[in-house]
């Protein structure tokens, strides 16, 4: 079964469905994993009810961080901001479907960290 998930990860890394930039967007946040250099930006468009209607990610990194970004965005389209706030580490691990060591776990969780920072209203320019 892990082989099937590995194929999905490689496919989403090579041909992501949600790679790009949304301008304008309603929510945007970017962060990086300083240990490996992975960088992910997530842009969301939400409707008046707070439901995600469009999503895109950009950045660079390993197959795990990029595939996790793509799979996460597929999962959040149609969800409300409140539902996104409830997403957990386990949700990401279930999407990826493989066991990860501590280093790869940080790669997999980067998109979750980014999207949660965005929906909780942490602005990229807050520290400037």
Give a description of the structure:
This protein has helices spanning 2-14, 63-76, 81-85, 89-96, 102-119; strands at residues 27-32, 39-46, 52-60. The protein has 128 residues and is α+β, with helices and mostly antiparallel strands. The chain has one domain: Sufe protein. Chain: A (Alpha-Beta Complex). A hairpin with a 6-residue loop joins strand 1 and strand 2 (39-46). Helix 1 packs across helix 2 and helix 2 runs parallel beside helix 5. The N and C termini lie far apart (46 Å). 31% of the residues are buried. Residues 123-128 have low confidence and may be disordered.
Percent helix, as a range, is: 40-55%
What is the number of domains? 1
Number of strands: 3
Shape: globular
Cα separation of the termini:
46 Å
Largest sheet: 3 strands, antiparallel
Strand-residue proportion: 15-25%
**Average pLDDT reading:** 90
Quick structural gist:
With 128 residues, the chain is α+β, with helices and mostly antiparallel strands.
Output the keywords:
alpha+beta; about 45% helix; three-stranded antiparallel beta sheet; Sufe protein. Chain: A; 5 helices; about 130 residues; about 20% strand
Question: What is the topology?
Answer:
Layout: H1 2-14, E1 27-32, E2 39-46, E3 52-60, H2 63-76, H3 81-85, H4 89-96, H5 102-119
Antiparallel strand pairs: 1-2, 2-3
Helix pairs in contact: 1-2, 2-5
């Amino acid at each position: 079964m892990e082989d099937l998930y590995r194929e999905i990860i490689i496919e989403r890394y090579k041909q992501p469905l949600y790679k790009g930039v949304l301008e304008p967007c309603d929510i945007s946040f970017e962060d990086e994993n300083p240990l490996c250099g992975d960088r992910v930006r997530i842009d969301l468009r939400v409707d008046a009810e707070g439901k995600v209607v469009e999503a895109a990610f950009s950045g660079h990194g390993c197959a795990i961080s990029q595939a996790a970004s793509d799979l996460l965005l597929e999962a959040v389209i149609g969800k409300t901001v409140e539902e996104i706030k409830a997403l957990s580490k386990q949700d990401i691990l279930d999407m990826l479907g493989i066991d990860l060591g501590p280093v790869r776990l940080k790669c997999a969780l980067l998109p979750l960290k980014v999207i949660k920072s965005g929906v909780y209203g942490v602005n990229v320019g807050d520290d400037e």
